[in-house]
Write a structure and sequence with these properties.
By secondary structure, the protein is an alpha/beta fold. It has one domain: Rossmann fold (3-Layer(aba) Sandwich), CATH 3.40.50. It contains nine helices and six strands; from the N terminus they run αβαβαβαβαβαβααα. A six-stranded parallel sheet has the order 3-2-1-4-5-6, with helices on both faces. Strand 2, helix 3 and strand 3 form a beta-alpha-beta unit. Helix 2 crosses helix 7. The longest helix has 19 residues. The two termini are 22 Å apart.
Length: 212
Amino acid sequence: MHNATNINNGRSVLTPSEDYAIIKKQIAQLKIHNDDKIFIHVARCSKEKNQELLINVFNKFIDNGEHAILILIGASYDAPEHKYLLNKAHKGIYWLGTKNNVCDYLFCSDFFILSSLWEGLPISLLEAISVGVIPICTPAGGIPDVIINQKIGFVSKDFNQNSFYATIEEAYNKYANFNRNHLKAYFKERFSMQTCANQYSETFKQKLQQIS
């Protein structure tokens, strides 16, 4: 449509819960090395989320000696058809079940990782960006519309293991030079609830002026 207006759905900025200090301590105890980087994956276990790719690649990442752990949060990993994924996961990959305070885990993480085959626009991705957690994703659905590669996170060129591994490795190696505050500012400008409300207000004003 020649007169269509695109307004991104706004999200509230996350804040830590009263359990944040407890979660921070728990995650520290999961580390194998003191300098381990924390990768977090928030999604139910399902075909479209492609956790098999994620676990296969992260197994290799750990086996190659990188100092990192992967936290999985979501339902259905213990379903009969998915248990094999947990059985193949190496030391350093932890499934923590479902959580009511995912925000606390995000605040404790360095990277947010999605291995999806298809997506719309993941709310979990926006929430991670809002608190400055660096996203690493496959190029599924609306993800490339949000992530500017190497500026607002990292997107693999396709869905195969070599590409995804290379993207994780690149993000890991560039961590020290990545401006996480830039992510927060990007979220505020593009996806905050205030920005969304302002855009709706301005659109209504323009449409009223056109018909008056």
